[in-house]
C-alpha cells in the first residue's frame, strides 16, 4: 500500500479501467458509488473528444455505470481550457464532433474559416478532404495547430479505426508543423483536471491501464499512480518501460 493512505482524490481513465466494450468492469460501479457516498473528489478522464460529458454519462448509465456528467473530463474539455488560458475569446477552425465543438462554444470561442487563431483537431468519424485542405492552408498562413490527443487508432467492434493522431500526422506531413497535443500523455490534462476539482498532486492518485499514457503522465504530474491489468498492460508490457507505477493492481475492484 505504498503511500495510498495519503490519497484523498482520484483521477481515473475510463476505457480499460472502469469500462470495456459497452459494459462496466467488475468493481467499477461500486467504486464510483463509494467515492460519491464518501464525498471524495474524483474525475473520470478520457482522450476521446467525440462525445460531450452528457452523452458519455448517458452511455455509461445505460450500461450500468452511474457517473455524473460533472465528473467526466474529456480531452475536448482540456483542449478548450488550454486555448482559453492561452487566448481568451479567440477564434478557431475546428475539425471534430459534438464533444469538441460544444466545448469550444462553451468557452466563448468563435468558429471560423477566416484567419483563425487556432486549427483544432479532434476525433472525427466524418473526415472530409475539404476540411483537411482548409486546415493545411490555415496552418500554413499562421494558425496555431492543436490536437486533442495523440492516439493514432481507436477501438471498435470491427477492429481499429484511424484516430486523431493519424489525421494529425497527415496535416503535419502537409505543413511541416507538429500540433501541440493537450490530451494524455501530456500531464497538462491531469493538471487541468485537478484545477477543475480544486485538488493538488500530493494527495491525488491516477488509475490507468496504459503505461505509455496514463502512468507516464501521472508520474510527470507528480501523482500516486495505479496501473490496473484490466486493459492494455500485462507484465511483459509493463517491463518494457523505464518507469514504474506506484502500485499495480488486478482491477479497480481491489480499491473498494
TrEMBL record:
Keyword Metal-binding on entry: yes
Residue numbers binding substrate: 184
Residues annotated as catalytic: 13 (nucleophile), 15 (proton donor)
Residues bound to Mg(2+): 13, 15, 209
Pfam families named among the record's database cross-references: Hydrolase_6, Hydrolase_like
InterPro entries attached to this UniProt entry: HAD-like_sf (IPR036412), HAD-SF_hydro_IIA (IPR006357), HAD_sf (IPR023214)
This protein's GO CC annotations: cytoplasm
Superkingdom field: Bacteria
Molecular-function GO terms, alphabetical: metal ion binding; phosphatase activity
Magnesium as UniProt keyword: yes
Entry similarity comment: Belongs to the HAD-like hydrolase superfamily.
Protein name, as recorded: HAD family hydrolase
Organism (species): Aquiluna borgnonia
Amino acid at each position: 500500500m505504498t503511500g495510498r493512505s495519503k490519497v484523498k482524490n482520484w483521477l481515473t481513465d475510463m476505457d480499460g479501467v472502469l469500462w470495456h466494450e459497452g459494459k462496466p468492469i467488475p468493481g467499477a460501479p461500486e467504486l464510483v458509488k463509494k467515492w460519491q457516498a464518501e464525498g471524495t473528489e474524483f474525475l473520470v478522464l478520457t482522450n476521446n473528444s467525440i462525445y460531450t460529458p452528457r452523452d458519455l454519462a448517458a452511455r455509461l448509465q445505460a450500461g450500468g455505470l452511474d457517473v455524473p456528467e460533472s465528473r467526466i473530463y474529456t480531452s475536448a474539455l482540456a483542449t478548450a481550457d488550454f486555448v482559453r488560458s492561452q487566448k481568451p475569446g479567440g477564434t478557431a477552425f475546428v475539425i471534430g464532433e459534438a464533444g469538441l465543438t460544444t466545448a469550444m462554444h462553451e468557452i466563448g470561442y468563435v468558429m471560423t474559416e477566416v484567419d483563425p487563431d487556432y486549427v483544432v483537431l479532434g476525433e472525427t468519424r466524418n473526415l472530409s478532404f475539404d476540411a483537411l485542405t482548409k486546415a493545411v492552408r490555415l496552418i500554413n498562413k499562421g494558425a496555431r495547430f492543436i490536437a486533442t490527443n495523440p492516439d493514432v487508432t481507436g477501438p471498435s467492434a470491427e477492429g481499429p479505426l484511424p484516430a486523431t493522431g493519424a489525421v494529425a500526422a497527415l496535416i503535419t506531413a502537409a505543413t511541416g508543423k507538429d500540433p501541440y497535443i493537450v490530451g494524455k500523455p501530456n500531464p497538462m490534462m491531469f493538471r487541468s483536471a485537478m484545477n477543475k476539482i480544486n485538488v493538488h498532486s500530493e494527495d491525488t492518485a491516477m488509475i490507468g491501464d496504459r503505461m505509455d499514457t496514463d502512468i507516464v503522465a501521472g508520474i510527470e504530474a507528480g501523482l500516486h499512480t495505479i496501473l490496473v491489468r484490466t486493459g492494455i498492460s500485462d507484465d511483459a508490457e509493463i517491463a518494457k518501460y523505464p518507469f514504474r507505477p506506484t502500485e499495480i493492481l488486478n482491477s479497480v475492484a481491489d480499491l473498494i
